[in-house]
# Entry
Amino acid sequence: MSATEDQARYPFLKEASSFVERFSLGLKELADYPGVVSRAMEWASCGLEGQIFITDPKDPETDILAYPLALAFIYGLKKEWAVNRFATSEQKRYDGLLRLEPDEKLARMAKEGFGWELERLHLSVEEKRFDFAMGVREYLDVAPHFHSSEWKLVNRYVQGGRVYIKKSEAARLLSGAVKNKIVKRASEEEIKKFEVPPVFDRQMEGLRAMAAKRGQVYEEGQVMVDLAEARPPCIVAIINDLSAGKSLSHMARFALTAFMINIGKSVDDVLLLFSNVADFDAGKARYQVEHIAGQIGSKTKYSTPKCDVLRSFGLCVNPDRLCEEVWHPLIYYRARLGELKRGKPNA
Amino acid sequence: MHELVVEEFRKYYSSLGTPLLAVREFRQRELAFLQFGEQMMIRHMAFRDEGEMKEYLTFKTPAHVYYSSAYYTRPGDQNMNRKGWTGADLVFDIDADHIPTPCKSDHDTWLCLDCRSKGRGFPPESCPRCGKKRLEAKTWVCEKCLATAKGEILKLMDEYLVPDFGLDLKDIEICFSGHRGYHLHITSKAVKELSNDGRREIADYVRGIGIDFGLQGFRALGKSDPLIGPSIRDRGWRGRVAKALYAYLNSCSLEELAQLLNSKQAANHIFKNKEKMMRGIAESPSWWGGISKEAIEKFNRIAAVAIRDVVCNIDERVTIDTKRLIRYPNSLHGKSGLVARAISYADLESFDPLSDAIAFRGDPIKVYVKDAPRIRLGEEEIGPLRDAEVVVPKAMGIYLLCRGAAEPRL
# Structure
């Protein structure tokens, strides 16, 4: 594979950005290259649609230039979920590509893109084979965003500040690091102030229309319906425990209450859920639920704790396909609502 | 607080050598103080150097002194968002209060605020009589509690931070908390920029939270074949699990096993074969024969109990937080009058907080004690006492006054 082709596939590499710089083109000038603009549009819309963009091996130069423009379009939409979705689709693209690369190349790209020292080794511990060791610190920059228990540090082979991983895991972590980088940049002042130049008004209009259709799933503030089938497994488990008369931890109560309030349930609806509990104290419960709903006290409406927190409290149970893609129970709920509307049966 | 105590605190700070107030990157830390008898903390303070801080401490004589685990570019800014967070130490807090030691029944009491039931020892989650949860606990510490806390700190360092995380002892600062436990501050660059999520993973790691024994090397080779498992020689959690299971099998009783597995038959089977199993676990490579695939679920249950002794009892909230205020090393604790002494690893083993953290020497003082259990401080031992007037060494007197268990008699 040629070096140029690599730069098109892996825009996080330094060579890719210096390629763009060599042309010393501003975003505005890219408008003069219709091929680049249309590839950028494709790349951005693939991201919004949750599809994986495939770079063109016959014309890597166009794609190298198209990437920064696609990213600019996404940041220009000014929607957190759009950035997240684009970044997730990029993560998947990298993951698929990286796991096919030879070990040395993977290690080299990790070093170049993120300064990670992937130490190559061939170590077998019992039945498990490891291909690399990496720093705990770098591992923890990315792995907490993954959800299954095999990514928890406690379930890894850790020694002397290094975590032992397989090649496929290295690819996943590296692609996760790219995703983090894309998401993190969105909160930087420079990107917050950034506006896409008016020459791209037509493209932005197209993307905005696409985003408006998609956005229903991700955007907050809309009235939601309570559809039991769309609830994430963690919330379902808490409700099951509750109806089985089990006593709930403080965190479980909080998570359930905040979830119900955030999908639009009233304080009374939520109280009804808890009324079967053995130690139910109506007055106290109302006070607490109203507090979480932001009706009293600090007047802040609390959001549901995110997946990471629930996992830490042992409340993340039976994660399913959709859980792998989201980081928050409410996002799961909105996404699942959308799927149900489109007739997708199982999560 | 009584003038006597305030005056003694002032003397302590005025004669304190400024090098003892040194913390890494002092100028990037937020400082906070709580005055005697006040509820509101004075926050968002920052000083140019330790000398300036010493002056403040001598002049204001706070009961409690804290500093941020975080480093800021503008530590004195009132607005948290404008402080400019650049990183934070990774902190571990071990508090004897959270560890149910047997000695709790010697010195701790609790009272149900609803039905007025009383009890001794570690307070239950809810009142055993009325089931309500409004319990008021009166807790004290003794040398046994503090020894347990020290054991936890040593375990955390020797079993986790150094071998697993590869941390260098020079990057770990140890402090007695001045009252009931110890703090560890990891100041290494490698942890400075860790996010909450990353810190949570580390806290979960040392607490054994979220452990999945299926991912610790246990695996059935075939349907009815024997099980493959971790080896005692493995590093990290795998070795820990193997060792913990070995120790558990070694010491458990048949009744204990039967109760845990909810089956006499299964317990009998394991109990009968336990010598063989232990030999297998200790062999190289390890051999977990005798445990069939069907038994994995049972084995998981045993493993979950077996690791209780090897996990660390830390307060995870402190470790996860990237902007925590922590007691300042070598400052005085307003609820004990003891020094939150910074200790080197070499001295930790022999460190006796109830002697080595004593700040006040000099003439004995007379106090009236309302209610106190047996207390040892240095060479002096008193109590249990109730409604008694006693003449005690100054450190003991101030300890009782700070604890709110006594009043001065002049």
